[in-house]
């Protein structure tokens, strides 16, 4: 491997794909089209190279001879100024502009080559190209499964789409090299392995040959002796195969993309899996599931495909997409494991050149396979707010090349290394030799997360989430740490030396606070401030919770973080005093305002009260003149943990985003649980004879990020858990 060191590359998710007559552009959806300054953020990550799009669909959308370089020129020039090498992508999961498509045997490849020549002439300093990203994957999604344009669903179309893309790569590299003879091809594709039960082993064997087809074609290997030759030639494509084999274009670097979903398992026993996983090949019916979710031991994963690729081709490899759609610490664990795996294999002689952190700005719609707008998922930066916000992945990236220690939250084993990975009946299979040779090292013992509030809804929820997410934690009650006693606080912090503290303790009885103002203020404000001061002096971040009751309810729109508080009662004032006290302290303090908790995991919340009352056939009274934004506790806890791991500070509003009256909220719960909504009695708040004044309109909104999933989604998840008996006895008092 000579002088090569393992490099850190990166890339923003940049797909431009077509569904029907509509083009979807990830840069439009994540806002990168409007922010040149994103490139400076990328440079701050310490990356050596970036996979960056100079896409045919953007440059010449209407006519091949009419090119618009106005957007891409300043970005390419800025990347050059920043000293970041560009790996230029020309088509990324696309079918080309509207005047061509993947099944255009005469126009797609020559048209792409002409675009490639123009790019090479304009940016003659670019030395590395990916003319077509993931041609095999794109052919499957566009011409075999019909998800993307041209929406074909037959095998002949699949092979034509693949061959047209391979020809596009060959002709493009020839055109590029006519301008820049030293240009290198970095050819990417998704790579996994298919496992199967004996009854469908034939399909698995075919899949495991087909997965190499793109690289085999480019390397000139698909000749008469290749196991796919007869199969592809039978579709009338022998001449195409001959032409490719006679003028191959081997990659200079194989770009290997491997996700936790890349390894598959085919099982003829359909009854073991939900219907949405059932499929087939026209001859057999089988379930197609993620192998990581069913096989024991786990499949070889990224290490396995790296070894296989090196053994098959002996060509330098870059892992060109490393991304995991999950909670923040799991995203970090996946990145760290990929880096460590590549470094270890390099020591064994496998020529892995780089690890590419993908989805720099997150992505939109991959939960629908880009067939609809779908959900936004953050990446190294979260762009759901008014500007990009660096997540914990950014600091992790900067430290990888220098071997810096990983954040405590990232030091546990990822979910793919834990028993929770198994979602379906386990299928036992023999372990491959390397599974025995490379046992997992014991994870380092990391500093814990300290959680206050062992008997409360939030404290219990955080402990439950940490256990599920494999975050080391200590859950304490007031017997272990007394927020009225500075010595108790100091002793507990020094004993556990946590990396952060979550204060989920406090006074929760809003009406009783009116008669016990001192006790409420002591619990919610003074205690939290003492804790914050002690933690801040030790460099320990804190997470605290406030309420919508810091507002008076006289606004005409949902309250955001910058709106002026004006509490009506003692409880709201105690929370405001806490916010202001923490803001005046040194250190890193995150305060989350939230509202109207509901959860399937304890009995003491509004949603459970509605459900249990209606289930008994009794009426339930709910206020119709008080508007709030209900918050599903599991969603709140997961997002709050991500923000804490990201190192966020200051005020955040987190709710499920919908403004509803308590009566309307009750109706939504009844509807989702199929209970009698006519038993709900909408009444005025004054009918409850509440001791503490309640603001009439206090929904919360945020300017800092996307917030939590929609309320409909939250209620659906609550209903599912409730109907499966998740409710347990608990107390909200902490």
Automatic annotation (TrEMBL):
It is an enzyme of class 1 (oxidoreductase). One of its GO terms (molecular function) is dTDP-4-dehydrorhamnose reductase activity. It holds the Pfam family RmlD_sub_bind. Residues 449-703 form the RmlD-like substrate binding domain. Binds 1 Mg(2+) ion per monomer. GO terms for biological process: dTDP-rhamnose biosynthetic process. It catalyses: dTDP-beta-L-rhamnose + NADP(+) = dTDP-4-dehydro-beta-L-rhamnose + NADPH + H(+). InterPro entries: dTDP_dehydrorham_reduct, GH, NAD(P)-bd_dom_sf, RmlD-like-bd. Pathway: Carbohydrate biosynthesis; dTDP-L-rhamnose biosynthesis. Keywords: NADP, Oxidoreductase. Its cofactor is Mg(2+). Its EC number is 1.1.1.133. It comes from the Bacteria. Catalyzes the reduction of dTDP-6-deoxy-L-lyxo-4-hexulose to yield dTDP-L-rhamnose. Belongs to the dTDP-4-dehydrorhamnose reductase family. This is dTDP-4-dehydrorhamnose reductase. It comes from Sphingomonas psychrotolerans.
